[in-house]
Write a structure and sequence with these properties.
This protein is α/β, with parallel strands linked by helices. Helix content is 27%, strand content 17%.
Length: 149
């Protein structure tokens, strides 16, 4: 009798979730956000399944010291529309960096995640802080270096 091969499916309950700390100091925003999205999504694991949450938690520190290249610091704007006529609001990158530096990284990572219920679930695994202190020491996060590739 011939034995049939069965495809093994991964379930979210079997996920081995880790916590990582990433230092955003002097990191380029897009490259940082792409790597954070990859970890949150679980694409760095061999059990990656597109429709399952297999990723890890990421704590980003020093968000106000993130870098962007070229003239982007002068030209980049963030848009929000209320839905009413004339309801467009724009904010310059430097104003957002001064008032709410966490938003910059959260917005960049959210743009790289799926625009579904899964994406809404995944973005909750991102914790961003403007400076070095964070309240997640109890989870024993590992330091993740972006230059180790």
């Amino acid at each position: 009798m011939k034995q049939e091969k069965m495809t093994k499916f991964f379930t979210a309950e079997k996920a081995d979730r880790k916590w990582y700390v990433i230092d955003a100091k002097d990191q380029v925003l897009g490259r940082l956000a792409a790597e954070v999205a990859r970890i949150i999504r679980g694409k760095n694991k061999p059990v990656f399944t597109p429709n399952m949450d297999a990723g890890d938690f990421v704590v980003v520190i020093n968000a106000k010291q993130v870098k962007i290249t070229g003239k982007r610091a002068l030209l980049k704007e963030y848009f929000h529309h209320s839905g009413y006529p004339g309801g467009l609001k724009t904010r310059k990158y430097q104003d957002v960096l001064d008032k709410n530096p966490e938003f910059i990284i959260e917005n960049a990572v959210k743009g790289m995640l799926p625009k579904t219920r899964l994406g809404n679930q995944l973005i909750k695994k991102l914790k961003v802080y403007a400076d070095e202190s964070h309240p997640h020491q109890a989870q024993k996060p590992e330091l993740y270096s972006l230059t180790e590739k």
